[in-house]
Amino acid sequence: MLKNAKKEWFSNIKKDLLAGIVVCMALIPEAIGFSIVAGVDPMVGVYASFVISVITAIFGGRTGLISAAAGATALVLASLVKDYGVQYLFAATILAGLIQAVLGYFKIGNLMKFIPKPVMIGFVNALGILMFQSQIGHFKGSYILIVLGILGIGIIYLFPKITKSIPSPIVAIFTITLIVNIFKIDITMLGDMGNITKDLPKFMIPNIPFNLETLNIILPYSISVALVGIVESLLTAQLIDDLTDTPSDKNRECIGQGLANIGAGFFGGIAGCGMIGQTIINNNYGGRGRLSTLTAGTAMLFSIILLNEFVVNIPVVALASVMIVVSITTFDFESIKRIKFVPKSDTLIMMSTVFVVLLTHNLAYGVVVGIIISALVFASKTSEIEINKNVINSFVKFDIKGPLFFASTTKFIDAFDYSKDITNVEIDFTHAKICDESAVSAIDKVILKYKSQDVDVKLIGFSIACSHLFDKVSVHDKETSVSSH
Length: 485
Known about the structure:
Elements: H1 2-10, H2 13-38, H3 42-59, E1 67-69, H4 71-84, H5 86-105, H6 117-136, H7 143-158, H8 168-182, H9 212-244, H10 250-266, E2 272-274, H11 276-284, H12 290-306, H13 308-311, H14 316-330, H15 333-337, H16 344-360, H17 363-382, E3 386-392, E4 395-404, H18 409-414, E5 424-434, H19 437-451, E6 456-460, H20 464-473
Parallel strand pairs: 4-5, 5-6
Antiparallel strand pairs: 1-2, 3-4
Helix pairs in contact: 2-3, 2-4, 2-11, 2-12, 3-10, 3-12, 4-5, 4-9, 5-9, 5-10, 6-14, 6-16, 6-17, 7-8, 7-14, 8-14, 9-10, 9-11, 11-14, 16-17
């Protein structure tokens, strides 16, 4: 275990430190912006991002994953702050963390295996589009913003051709910042987004009444935050699993996210979760270990405290240029090319996920809809049951092939011949599987129909599992009770 911990922390020191610094620059406007969305002081997001990154770096289940104050959780908590104040936000954040830790303990992370590939692709593509849309506003209002934006994007793409020893986003940010400040260009700076102070976070207990009424107020928000945070964090972890071809512990990640939100609430921060855009930046610039996650949060806090004068004078357009490039690299353009080759159902699932995310601006909603459509498509494909009939005088044998469950019961019932010339029926389930109560109910209906016509019915070929289910649920016996003679 000690060897593995050493590898996770110190096997990639240089790249982790550099990637963490790049991520730090992208985290600052996000943390401040999401605080504004939630209706709280900008430092609430900064404190949260610091605490969450430190705790998830230590306790998280996916190395190289960046967690911080996030837009999804900010949107959920905005109305709570508006109606009850920021102290209730801190309490809801702590409770959300407790819920996440408990869910992680009960291994909710194992449910990730039920998210199909088309949903993941739709999730990534929707994220890329949302990030792009969110940054466009920073280039409006002046042609100078467009010029600076193009310059920033150009540096990010072209500087690596000169050297890769210094991450190009850092070069772009410093270059644009110098140009704007030397020539006194009047555009929006980070300091214009809110009051960015030099104060360190302090431990505090939320100043609220500790009673059932308070619990009743914060519980719905905490549940929503917990679920949204888990979905986004686990999807981010899965995405990095795929990009790096390495595994992660999803249940540990849930617990780590929970502990991080508990810590954030006690240090005056808003709830957060996995940040997909920042995690992709981290991955793109070589951040693989826990040190990159730790660096991102700590560098952000200390840059604001120690380099406050510089940070507040960073043009927002410089950081927006970085996020534009990230949004472009996030979008899976190969998925568009694959549309002509993949099943139409996969394209439907992917496009539905994207559409719902763009409609609601909530990644979790899109994923849920994508999973539901995937389940319906799967049910439709697997409901194809085959029924072959062999007739010998008044004796009829039906051979059933395929799964019999709620989606295939109608076809099963309609396939039987209820002619009055039949005296004996045998139904062979050797190549079939009875999956649920609906299947047993369908068999009972067939038996009752034949029984009303004085037809003997015999069921054969049950597997042990199918026989056990039938015996528990059916009102008939497989060989004797179904006979009317």
